[in-house]
Structures are given as structure tokens and as C-alpha cells.
Amino acid sequence: MRRLVTWSLCLVLFAAAPGCGDSGDKPDAPGPGATPATPAAPDGNGPAALNGGAEPAPLAPFSAVGLVEELGPSIYMEGSHKLTRDGALVCLLESKTVDLAAWVGKQARVEGNARPTTEGNQTIVAVTAISAAP
Fold first, then answer.
1. How many domains is the chain built from?
2. How far apart are CA 84 and CA 64, in angstroms?
3. Which one of 44, 67, 127, 128 has the minimum C-beta count within 10 Å?
4. Longest dimension (CA), the chain
5. Which residues contact 133 (CB under 8 A, 6 or more apart)?
6. Under 8 Å CB-to-CB from 37, ≥6 apart: which residues?
7. Rounded Cα–Cα distance for residues 43 and 79 (Å)
8. Has residue 7 been placed in a domain?
9. 3-state secondary structure the chain
10. Residues of the chain falling short of pLDDT 70
11. What is the tens place of the pLDDT at every residue in 38-71?
């Protein structure tokens, strides 16, 4: 009798497992509250962009003059510094080659490649050169 109960329990659990009992010709539908799978990027190497898989915005040459300041905590979650003019934000700054911290509090001309930020509808510049503003 104990063997019969054990086998019956195994069959019930097996039949209730996700994907069991399907004919195999259709994929399982996500359950309620499930998050759909992230679509692959066009090249197949990772998730697609959140903008429907569109190509990222191209980099544009950029040059501006302003006061270099530390960015601090922000909604942008990108960049380490910002460029301001008359107290207004010109752009966010980031660089792997230029020491932006050395320019904090100074008027400077920054040059680099600009792109839109992921959040906050701003511009972020990958700084390639920086010099004292005239």
C-alpha cells in the first residue's frame, strides 16, 4: 500500500510540473505577472535597446565653454562632472583619458563626442580634450 501511495504522489507531482502534459509543439506561455523575456539585440549579443531595438544615437562632435563642476548624486546616473554656464547645465561630462577633477571650479573649453543620456533628456560628452577658456 505504501508503494502505491508513493507512486501515485510522484505521478501527481510530475503531471503538475510546468511544461508537463504538453504535446511539445508549442512553447509555454508566461504565467500571470511574468516578465517577458528581454529581446536580443540585432547582432544577437545581448538585450536590445529599450527604445524598441533601434540603433543607439550616433556620437556627435561637441565643443563648449563653461564652468566644470562635480556632478554629485543625480537622476542621470551617468558622468562624473557637469559643465555649466551662468548657472544653467550645458552638459554632463565623462572621460577615461582626461582628469576632469583637476578642472573643477575652472572655466574651460571641453571637446569630445556627445550623445543623449539614458535618463533625464540631457547630453553627455565623452571628453577627449580640455583647455583653459579664453
1. 1
2. 10
3. 44
4. 94
5. 65, 66, 107, 108, 109
6. none
7. 27
8. no
9. CHHHHHHHHHHHHHHHCCCCCCCCCCCCCCCCCCCCCCCECCCCCCECCCCCCCCCCCCEEEEEEEEEEECCCCCCCCCCEEEEECCEEEEEEECCCCCHHHHCCCEEEEEEEEEECCCCCCEEEEEEEEEECC
10. 1-58
11. 344 444 444 444 444 455 566 889 999 999 999 9
Task: Compute the residue count for the chain.
Answer: 134
Q: Supply the pLDDT for residue 59.
A: 81
CATH number at residue 105: 2.40.50.500
Rg from Cα positions in the chain: 27
Q: Is residue 84 part of a domain?
A: yes
The residue behind cell 553627455 is 124
